[in-house]
């Protein structure tokens, strides 16, 4: 999905605050049809906010682990959203 590709690129954005707002807007396009998906989206956004905090406080030298965690949370969101779509198709 193009939404997830765009969100993945936002994880590396220079302007973390703008990236959070754009990611939030993109994620609102997904139908949050399950509690698990809703929680996964919340966890991802929290990790993206943590990443922004780390970059603001410590610069780009300490952000690798936070970016990795955000990507893993995004993968969970992607899997859950695709799982809901495939379950509805059955």
Can you describe what's shown?
With 90 residues, the chain is mainly α. It has 4 helices and no strands. Helix 2 packs antiparallel against helix 3. It is elongated and about 35 Å long. The mean pLDDT is 88.
Topology:
Blueprint: H1 2-10, H2 16-27, H3 35-58, H4 64-89
Indicate the radius of gyration in whole angstroms. 13 Å
Helicity, as a percent range:
over 70%
Shape: elongated
Low-confidence spans: none
Mean pLDDT: 88
Topology pattern, helix = H, strand = E: HHHH
Find the count of extended strands (DSSP E, 2+ residues): 0
Label the structural class: mainly alpha
Which assembly state applies to the chains in this document? single chain
Number of helices: 4
Strand content: under 5%
Distance between the termini: 20 Å
**Main sheet attributes: strand count, strand direction, barrel closure:** none
Descriptive tags:
90 residues, 79% helix, 4 helices, mainly alpha, elongated
Question: What is this entry, summarized?
Answer:
The chain has 90 residues and is mainly alpha-helical. The chain is 79% helix and 0% strand. It contains 4 helices and no strands.
């Amino acid at each position: 999905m193009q939404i997830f590709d765009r969100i993945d690129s936002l994880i590396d954005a220079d302007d973390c605050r703008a990236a959070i707002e754009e990611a939030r807007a993109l994620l609102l396009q997904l139908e949050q049809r399950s509690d698990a998906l809703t929680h996964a989206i919340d966890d991802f956004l929290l990790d993206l906010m943590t990443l922004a905090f780390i970059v603001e406080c410590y610069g780009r030298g300490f952000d690798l682990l936070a970016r990795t965690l955000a990507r893993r949370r995004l993968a969970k969101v992607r899997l859950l959203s695709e799982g809901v779509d495939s379950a509805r198709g059955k």
